Records
---
Amino acid sequence: QTSMKNMERELVCPVCKEMYKQPLALPCTHNVCHVCASEVLLQHGHLCCDPTSEPTSPAATPSTRSPRLGRRAVPKPDRLDRLLKSGFGTYPGRKRGAVHPQTVSFPCPACQRDVDLGERGLGSLFRNLTLERVVERYRQTINISAAIMCQFCKPPQLEATKGCTECKSSFCNECFKLYHPWGTQKAQHEPTPPTLTFRPKGLMCPEHKEEVTHYCKTCQRLGCQLCRVRRTHTSHKITPVLSAYQALREKLTKSLAYILSSQDTVQTQIAELEETVKHTEV
C-alpha cells in the first residue's frame, strides 16, 4: 500500500496536484500537464507564440536544451528574415522583426528554476507518452484493486460496472438501465468505466478521438495534438484552446456590454416609432 502511494506521488502534476494529463517534458527533465503549462504561461503574460514556426536558434546551454531540439538544423539567414518579417512567434514584450528575438521563460514548479523554452515556447516541448501510459496503467490498476460500489442499489449494494460523466455517478447494470430509460434524454448518456472522481468531459476531436487542445485560427477549427502536426496545418496560426477561449470571451463580453448599454436607447426609439405609427394611422 505504501509503495503504491509513493508511486502515485510521482505521477502527480506539480501544478494542479492531480495525475498527469497529456504531460509535457520540460528541458529540466520535470513534467507538467499541457493545460497547466498553458495556464502558467498565460499568468506570466505570455500569449502563445506560433507553434508551427521553426526556432531561430538552439537553446542557450546544453543543460536547458531538449536532445531532439538540439539536432534540428538552424534556419538559413533568408529563412530567418522571412520569419521575422512575417511576425512569427510574436507575443507581449517582443517587438515584431527584432534582431534578437526573445525566448519564453517557464518557471518550473518542481525545481523552482526558470527554464528556457526558446522562441516557440510550448511548441518546442514533446509530449511524454511513456509517462502518459504509466499513468493510464496505474489508473486501471487502482480501479481493479479498489472495487467501486453502485451508488443507487438498495443494501446489499452491487459492484458498479458503469459510470456516467453527465450524472457524476457509478451504477451497476440494472441501475444504469433504470436511471437511463429508453426514449429519454438520459438514454443518450455515454457509459464510462466506474470511478469515484468524475472530471468534466472535455471536447473530443472527431477525427482522432483525442481531447481537443488547440484552435486553428486559419481554419477556424478545434484540433488535438495529432491535428496540430498534420501537413494541412503547416504555416497556420494555431493557439491553445485556453488562449482562444479567453480572447473570444473578452470579445463577447465587450459586445454584450455594448448591447446592454444601448438597450434603453433602443427601447425609447421603439416607443417613439410606435407613437408615430399610431399618430399616422389617426
---
Amino acid sequence: MVRFSLCLFFLLLLLSAGEISSQLGSGPRILDLKTLIPPKMKNPVGFKWSWDHHDSHRACVKSIASYSGRKETAFYATDIQTRIMICCTVFFGIFSRIKLDLNGLSMLRVRAFDNEENEFRSLVGLQLIWKLMPGSGGSTQHLAHVPLKESPLTDCGGFCAHLDIQKKLEDGGVFSDLFVVKGTGIGHEKVSVHLLDAPLTHITDEIVVAVAEVMSLELFSAVYVLVGASFGYTLNVIRGNVPQAVHLPSLHHRWSVLNSSVAQVGSLIDLTKALSLWKTTVILEDTRVAGHFQTPSINVVTPDTFILQSSTWSFPILTR
C-alpha cells in the first residue's frame, strides 16, 4: 500500500445559493486527472493542486515511501456545498531520463520522464548538480548562476508554490530542478545537470545556451521601394537595458540578402539597393553567436498611383 500525506483534502467552493445552481452543470474539475511523481528518495517530492476561486485553496500530495516499480493511488476532493466529488489518479514511478529546458534566457528547468515517456509533474525536493562550461572548448564563462533568493522569481505575490523548498536546497549547498542564470559575455555556454539522489546519479542531460545582445533594426517591418532605390538601416543593441546605436560598419555584424537578383547589400554596411521587381529578405547576423539573426523583408514594387501633396512652410520672424 502506498502511503501519502494530504496537506489539504477538501477544495472549498464559496458559492452563494444562486451560484451553486448555475454551477451544477459543470461543477468543480481537476484538469490533471492523472499525475506522475517520483517516490521518496533522499527527500520527498510534492505536487500541488489549487482552486482559483475566491480564496486560493490548495491540496498537496507528497511521496513519503521508498520502493521500486510503479505504484498508484487515488486522490479525492469533495465540494462541501454541492457534494460533487472529483478524483485524480496519482502514479509513483522511477525516472528513465531527464530533459533540460530553457525558458527564455534566464531560467533553466529540468523535466523527467519514465520508460513509457510519461512526464513527471513535479521534481520539487530532488537534489541536482548543475555545471556551467564554456562552449567550443573555450575558457571564458558566458553565464553565471543567480541564487533563487536574489532572482526576480521571489516577487511572486504570495503564489510561489514550492519556491521555498527550492531556495532551501540552494541554501544547503545543492540545487533543485530550477536554475537561474544571467549572461556575462557574448558566446556559447554548455549547461549540464544530473541527479544527486541514488540510485539515479547516472541520469543526466545537457544543452548549449547562446548568450547574445538583443538587436533591433529601424525599418524592420516590410519595406516597399522602387527599382533603383537605395536606403539604409539603423542598428541598435540593448546593453544594460538601454538601447545603443551601433556604429557601422561593425566587424561583429555581417549583412547579406537572400535573393541577390532582387536587392544587394554590403557585407559590413547597411546600405541596400533594390535591383528588380520581387521580394526578398535582408539577413543581419551577429558573427559572435551562431544563429543570431535579424531578417527584415524588402518588397520591390511598381506604384499604382502618385499623390501630390502640399504643405505650408513657416519661417521665424526676427524682431528687435
---
Amino acid sequence: KMYRTVKATSGRQIFQPLHTLRSAEKELLPGFHQFEWQPALKNVSSSWDVGIIDGLSGWTSSVDDVPAETIGRRFRYDVALVSALKDLEEDIMDGLRERGLDDSTCTSGFTVVVKESCDGMGDVSEKHGSGPAVPEKAVRFSFTIMSINIRFDEEEDAVTIFQEQKPNSELSCRPLCLMFVDESDHETLTGILGPVVAERKAMLESRLILTIGGMQRSFRFFFRGTGYDEKMVRELEGLEASGSTYVCTLCDSTRAGASQNMVLHSITRSHSENLERYEIWRTNPFSESADELRDRVKGVSAKPFMETQPTLDALHCDIGNATE
C-alpha cells in the first residue's frame, strides 16, 4: 500500500514527482490524523513527537533533527495505532459491508487485538564508518493489528470484520521504537520501554474516538505480548537468563525437576508474584545466604517491567509434546 501512488493500474511503474510521494507518505506516518481519547489518557505526553531519547539529556523536541547521542527513536503508541487503523480504513469498511452491516449504525463496540513483538537486531555496528560511537546492538519494538471485531450489545457474539491474513509478514508489522541497546541491558531497556508500557496501560482504560469511513467510531484495544522470544520474555519478566537452573519462564521447575517429572507442569507464575519475589531478592528479609535467597525467589533476578500474558512458553510446549 505504501507506494500505491507510484504503481499505475496497468502494473507498470510510473514515476511520480517526489513531492506527491512525500505527501502520501505523510499520511502513513504517525501524527497526521486527528483523534481523541475518552477519557483522556493518564500519564501520557500530549505532544506526539516524543520520538527521540538522547543518551545524555532526556527528551528532545523534534523527530527530524536527531542529535548524535540519540539512543532510541519512537512514535507515541496511541498515535502509531491511529496511523495503523487509518491505513486499514478500506479493509474495515469492506469488512462491515461483507458482513451486511450498516456502517452508519456501527459507531461503537469495536475491539482491536494487537500483537506486540520485541527482539534484538544483533550487530549493527559500522564496520569502517566515522559516525557517532553507538552501542553495537539494536532492539526493535513493533506491533501488528491482528483482528478488529464489533459487538453490538453484551449478549451477542462479536463479529470479526478484519483479520490479518499474514500476521508474521513484515508488511503488517509496524515499528514503534528502535533503540541502540543490547537486549540484555535490563536497565536501559526499562528506561526506554517504560513510557511505552505506561502508554499501553493508559490505553487499556480508555476508548479511542477516530473517524473511519467519514464517521466517528470508538475502539477499545487489547494487547498480547506473543511476539517475544524466550530471551526477551526472561528479560522483561526480570528472570535469570536461559542458562539458569530454573528453566521455565512460567513455573518454578528446575532442570533436574523437569527431567524427573514430565507430567506435573502447570503455569504457576504471575507478573505480580514476580514483583513480590523481586522485593524479597532486593531486601532479603530473612537474612539468608545468596544460595538460599536464590532458591526462595526461583530465578527472579531483576525487576520485571512488562506484564506478559500467561501463555504457553517453549518449555511447557516441549514437555506437552513429549507427554503426548
---
Amino acid sequence: CFLYLAHFPEDSKIYTCDLFNYWAAEGIYYGSTIQDSGEDYLQELVRRNLVIAEKKNLGWRLEYCQMHDMMREVCLSKAKEENFLQIIKVPTSTSSINAQSPSRSRRLTIRSGKAFHILGHKNNKKVRSLIVLGLEEDFWIQSASVFQNLPLLRVLDLTEVKFKGGKLPSSIGGLIHLRFLSLDDAGVSHLPSSMRNLKLLLYLNLRVAIEEPVHVPNVLKEMLELRYLFLPLLMHDKTKLELGDLVNLEELWGFSTQHSSVTDLLRMTKLRSLSVSLSERCTFETLSSSLRQLRNLETLYLVF
C-alpha cells in the first residue's frame, strides 16, 4: 500500500476513491466493501506517520491523503529498490528513451505523452499497471493496436488522454484481466462493443470530456464484478443500458432514467452512493419505490 503512493507527483493530493480502487485492482482488499478495506489500510499508514490524510468536510470518511517530501523520497527509493514501479518522464534523446525502456517493473506511470511509444517495447508484456498522471501537454493515442502489447494489465488509468477520432480502440477488449479502467476527462466519444470482454472490472469511469453525446453500447450488463461505475454525463438519445444485474455496485454515478430502467436499482442493495438524472417519464414517486431496498445508501443526488 505504501509503495503504491510512489505513482503520484510531488505535493499532489491523492484522492482516496482512486487509491482504494488501485489497491483493490491489485488484490489488496478484504471484507465486504472496497471503501472499508481501503480506509483500514490508510488509517494504518496514518498511524505510522507515513502519510497525512484529510477528511471530507465534516464527514467521517477520508477524502485525500498526501506525503511529506522526506517520506516521499523514502517511498520512491524503496519502490526503485523493489522494482515496484517505473516513472517515465519526458525523454530528451534517443539514448534516454532506451534507458527508460522498462525491464522488470510490473507498474508504469507516464508523465509525458512524448514517452508513450515506449510501451511498444517488447519487455512490456508483463506490465500489470499503467497510470497516466501529471501531464503538462495534450496526450494523444493514435494507434488502434496500442493495447496489444499490454495483455496482462490489471490497472489502466487514461485520465485526460485523447484518442484519434474520439474512438476508444477495440483492442481494449483484449485486456481481459483489467480490474480498473478510468477514462475520466478523456477525449472519447465512442466506446467499442469489445468492452463486453472486460468481465473482471471492479472500477469503471466513463466520465469523459467530450461535450457531444457519447456512444455507449449495451455491454455493461456483463461486468458483474463492478463496484464503482461512473457513466457519461451525456449519452446518445437511443442509448439503452441494462444494469439490473450489477448487484455488487457500491457507487453508481450518472444513472439516467432516460437510458436505463429505474427498476434496475431494486437489486443494487450494496449501493452507498447514487446520483440519478430523472427524465419526464419517471416521477419521484416511481423512483422512491425503486430505492426502498437500498438500506446501505449514504449519499443520493437527484437531477431533475
